[in-house]
Structures are given as structure tokens and as C-alpha cells.
Amino acid sequence: MEAIGVLMTCPMNNYLEQELDKRFKLFRYWTQPKQREFLAQHAESIRAVVGNATAGADAELIDALPKLEIVSSFSVGLDKVDLNKCKEKGIRVSNTPDVLTDDVADLAIGLMLAVLRRICECDKYVRRGAWKLGDFKLPTKFSGKRVGILGLGRIGLAAAERAEAFDCPISYYSRSKKANTNYTYYNSVVELASNSDILVVACALTPETTYIVNREVIDALGPKGVLINIGRGPHVDEAELVSALVEGRLGGAGLDVFEKEPEVPEQLFGLENVVLLPHVGSGTVETRKAMADLVLGNLEAHFSSKPLLTPVV
């Protein structure tokens, strides 16, 4: 398969990059200063694209690659891949579900604990010597809090199961009521937020879920409520979130994702009730290797005329 051209859209994982280089003819798209000219020059030899949640395969890129057969995404989310264009052109699409579910769900619980128990602020308190001057102010308990899950897919369900271990009542909103769960279902996100102490965003990013957490939802969650976003930045109206936190209309937030990554609103930096992470939900050594192996496995399956391991299109 060394002659098969694979376009990697951006740097995402050293192991994946090295393995692609060994097994295929790898093109590193981000290193090209004149990308249009580069695509025109190599269009006939590029048969696969490897992207992620930051840089996938939009309609322009797909149209520029007439020999493209497969887009293998190093992520679960596919909002950076034009799925309709892929279907139209018969291009296969795969992603990396399941292998990152545990890490992202673990991180959701970590963010809940970090925000409510003020773990990051406690750490700073000790480091700057403030403990010698008096005890840290009392934070808020996590166990028993009402946890609402926005999107009860693999990750949302895993986060819910973990929160149950803390005696948290679980409710959820999704496109339809789930048959195999006893969790409380609400017909709208506003209703879910009104009945939650913590709202966890864990749905897929689509046109319908963009800004699904808006001012009305944030106000329903209220000044004692906490928003946890482990989904995608554009799920949340970031300007409304910032103003709600600054004005005290929202109790706190734990954010792993942002609307225009890596840009983060500077108004959040000085807030003690906010925990900010650099999109590391699946960011462990073990999981990133498993994701890379799944990307490689899908590519090799396709070019060996075998069924994809995790087909989307």
C-alpha cells in the first residue's frame, strides 16, 4: 500500500503520523504554504484523507481530490466532514467511536468535581501560601446533585452511569426517548436544564445542535447550576455563556471545548468558578493509540476490499 496517497490534514498524533508514513505515501497538508497548488499537483495520487475534529474534509477539499475514496477521521465527531458530499460521490467515511468513550466520560466527572469542589482554586491556594493565612472557603458537594445529560449516546450514557455512582439522579434530553433506560426523559433542553443542577453537553454537533445551549437554557440552569461541555464548542452560545458567568446568572462551568479553538474568551480566565481544558477529552496515551490504530485499520480494510471497522458512510 506504499503507493497509495494519504492526505493528513493537520498534526494530530505522532504515532499515527509515523505509521501512515510507513504504510502509505503520506502527504502532510499543514506543511504546504500553497495548498491549492499542492492539491492540484497531487490530486491524482491522493486516495484517502485523514482528518480530525479540527480539520476534516469539507466540500472544497473533496472536490479537489477526484480520486478520493475514503475519509478516516481521528475523532468521533464528524462535523468537519461534509457527509452529504461524501455520500454523493460514493466516498467512504469512518471515525473512532467506543475507544474514547471511557476517557471522555471520566473527564466529565472530573470537571464536575473540579468545578463544584473548586479543585483548581484549592491547588492555587496552597501553592501561593494562602493556606497559612486561613482555611479555603467551603465549596459545593457533588454527590446527590441532579445531573442532566444533553445527548444520551455512548459518551452521555457512560457519563450518566459514572454519575449514578455518586447517587446523582439522572435525566436526559435526546431526539427521542431511549427504550433501554430508566432515566427521566425531558422533551426540551430548557425543561432538562430547569430540572438539573449540572447540565452535561455530550451530543453530536449538527446544524440542529449548534447553539443548542442558548440564553434560555443557561437561565433555566440558573445561578446555582453548572454547565459541563465535553461535546463541541459550537453547542454553546459562547457569548451568552460568558455573560452569564460574569453576571452570576450561571453558577459555574467546566469546559473542554470552545467555539473557536484554540481561542478562549479572556473574560473566563479570572473566574474562580470555571475550569478550562484544552480539548483533552480523549487525550490519554492509551486512547490516542487505540484511535490511531482504528484509523489505520479502517484504511487498510478499505484498500484490501474488506468491510470498514467503523463505517459511517
TrEMBL record:
Single GO molecular function: hydroxypyruvate reductase [NAD(P)H] activity
Keyword Transmembrane: no
PANTHER family: 2-HYDROXYACID DEHYDROGENASE YGL185C-RELATED, 2-HYDROXYACID DEHYDROGENASE-RELATED
GO annotations of cellular component type: cytosol
Alphabetized InterPro entries for the sequence: D-isomer_2-hydroxyacid_DH (IPR050223), D-isomer_2_OHA_DH_cat_dom (IPR006139), D-isomer_DH_CS1 (IPR029752), D-isomer_DH_NAD-bd (IPR006140), NAD(P)-bd_dom_sf (IPR036291)
Signal sequence extent: none
Record SUPFAM superfamilies: Formate/glycerate dehydrogenase catalytic domain-like, NAD(P)-binding Rossmann-fold domains
Domain of life: Eukaryota
Organism this protein belongs to: Mentha aquatica
Keywords for this protein: NAD, NADP, Oxidoreductase, Pyruvate
Similarity field: Belongs to the D-isomer specific 2-hydroxyacid dehydrogenase family.
UniProt cross-references to Pfam families, sorted A to Z: 2-Hacid_dh, 2-Hacid_dh_C
Boundaries of every D-isomer specific 2-hydroxyacid dehydrogenase NAD-binding domain copy: 109-281
Protein name (database record): Hydroxyphenylpyruvate reductase
Enzyme Commission number(s) of this protein: 1.1.1.237
Entry keyword annotation includes Nucleus: no
Boundaries of every D-isomer specific 2-hydroxyacid dehydrogenase catalytic domain copy: 8-312
